[in-house]
């Protein structure tokens, strides 16, 4: 194996060509052009027909969802009976709770099994 390193090459800058000066002539003026308005001579040109008469608007049947006039008011109820206020909530009769809603007895304690016997450790040899 050789310890030769690749030689570095220096890039020589290449001179750019000079940009030539270009003279641009001015744009020629746009000449004014007069356009005569379009007006056909009297008695010439196409005849415009008369427009047909506008038809009357169509008759739309009344919708079943259209608002209707209010119905006659119902006759007032006779006010001969005096107002009786309802009984207050404190006097409501409270029935006794059925047996199904009684507090159940707590379940029996879970039986805890006895721990297993200790693993026998052998005696070390003498």
Write up this protein.
- The chain is largely without helices or strands.
- 0% of the residues lie in helices and 0% in strands.
- It contains no helices and no strands.
- The model has no long low-confidence stretch (mean pLDDT 80).
- Residues 1-21, 35-79, 95-126 are annotated as: Disordered.
- Residues 49-79, 104-126 have a biased composition (Pro residues).
Structural class: little secondary structure
Low-confidence stretches: none
**Share in β-strands:** under 5%
| Fraction of residues in helix | under 10%
Overall geometric form = flat
Largest sheet report:
none
Task: Set down the secondary structure blueprint.
Elements: no helix or strand
Overview features:
126 residues, little secondary structure, 0% strand
Short summary of the structure?
Residues 1-21, 35-79, 95-126 are annotated as: Disordered. The protein contains no helices and no strands. By secondary structure, the chain is mostly loops.
